[in-house]
Design goal:
By secondary structure, the protein is mainly beta. Helix content is 2%, strand content 57%. It is built from 1 helix and 29 strands. A 5-stranded mixed β-sheet has the order 1-28-27-26-25, with no helix packed on it. The protein has a 4-stranded antiparallel β-sheet with strand order 4-3-2-29. The protein has a 4-stranded antiparallel β-sheet with strand order 5-6-7-8, with no helix packed on it. Strand 3 and strand 4 form a beta hairpin. The longest helix is centred in the first third of the chain and has 9 residues. It is globular. The relative contact order is 0.12.
């Protein structure tokens, strides 16, 4: 796999700043920060066809571990504790990112942010403290205030990882409701954002259970079918939920790994291609793979491929805008690896290219 040497990244960046590739695609990378590593959000432009990287900016902000992009602005959670945790909003321009404002989250280690489709609110998931925070957002990206908070206090059978509720993500369903994964309690909460005059609040609609010890982390809704797929961090499984008689029902379970794998799981991210034909998921732990599934007409999955990511700690991944490439953030080996994607078969192939970057954990376009 071709790698730009990490020690030369700064020199390489300076060299290409003056000659931005004409076909470059903007991307933003959230990281965990350290004094001798990354210092914040990396605003990059990458030309996929010519393998050319242009570093626009490294915006300094602590532990921006998850990002969401609006029209002209970027939201980032600063995954901290002790009262330093916050939601940060940044304006996007060709010259780089600039601060709009920040507001603290209710509890510790915010690890995910969902921006509403109309960009009027954001939902922040706090891993420590079991809190779901609702923030109102203006059209220019300013965070107005924290409107509401729901705190959960569940637990499950893993005595190390599930002693308390750990809210890990929130995703918007086709019904307009918000689906929140609680890794610690093995539950998925279905919430509605309600408008009351000029204010917003959270209303609980339903709670879905997953098998004990699974540890729900992220999920993906099918773009057409009445199905969603929930990724279990601890068991390395995908649970398919189908809408039957107006009720979400667990219908199938699939393993991410090869048949002979018996190590520790750490499933991280899950996404579906825009055409609804293929599903992908990453698994960290002792697996360090990305798995490809075909989605059948009835919504069932067929495992097509389990590939090494060529590094350690595959966290968040994303499709390039044309979905011909998949970019994976290998947190523990400090790189973003790039795979070719065959849009007709869904299969991935190592492109031989990667971008060195300390502890990448979120990639968005």
């Amino acid at each position: 796999m071709k790698i730009y040497q990490a020690g030369l990244l700064a020199t390489f960046s300076m060299a290409v700043l003056a000659c931005k590739p004409p076909a470059a695609t903007p991307l933003y990378v959230g990281t965990y920060t350290q004094a001798d590593g990354s210092h914040g959000i990396h605003y990059l432009e990458y030309d996929f066809q010519n393998d050319s990287l242009h570093v626009v900016q490294e915006y300094r902000t602590p532990n921006p571990s998850f990002l969401a992009k609006g029209n002209g602005f970027l939201l980032a959670v600063n995954e901290l504790t002790g009262g330093e945790q916050q939601l940060t909003s940044l304006a996007i321009s060709e010259g780089g990112l600039s601060p709009i404002n920040s507001i603290p989250t209710s509890t510790g280690s915010p690890c995910h942010v969902l921006l509403a489709e109309d960009e009027s609110y954001a939902i922040v998931s706090n891993y420590v403290g079991g809190a779901v925070d609702l923030f109102s957002i203006t059209g220019s990206g300013q965070i107005l205030r924290r409107e509401d908070t729901r705190i959960y206090t569940g637990s499950s059978i893993d005595k190390e990882r599930q002693r308390a509720s750990h809210i890990h993500s929130a995703f918007l369903g086709p019904d307009g409701w918000v689906y929140v994964s609680d890794l610690g309690a093995d539950k998925i909460y279905v919430l509605e954002v309600v408008r009351d005059g000029d204010g917003l609040s959270i209303k609980e609609r339903d709670t879905l259970d997953v098998p004990a010890g699974g540890g729900p982390r992220h999920l993906a809704f099918h773009p057409i079918k009445n199905d969603f797929y929930a990724l279990m961090e601890l068991s390395g499984e995908i649970h398919r939920f189908s809408l039957l008689d107006q009720q979400w029902t667990l219908t199938e379970t699939y393993d991410l790994n090869t048949d002979d794998f018996s190590g520790v799981n750490g499933a991280a991210d899950i996404k579906i291609s825009a055409d609804g034909k293929f599903l992908y998921a990453t698994n960290r732990g002792e697996a360090n793979v990305i798995s490809t599934f075909g989605i059948q007409p009835d919504g069932k999955l067929t495992k097509k491929q389990v590939l090494s990511v060529g590094g350690q700690g595959p966290r968040n991944f994303n499709f390039s805008p044309d979905e011909q490439f998949v970019l994976i953030g290998n947190q523990l080996s400090d790189e973003i690896v790039i795979f070719h994607r065959d849009v007709s078969t869904g299969l991935l192939e190592d492109s031989g290219k990667s971008i060195p970057l300390a502890q990448p954990v979120c990639i968005i376009f």
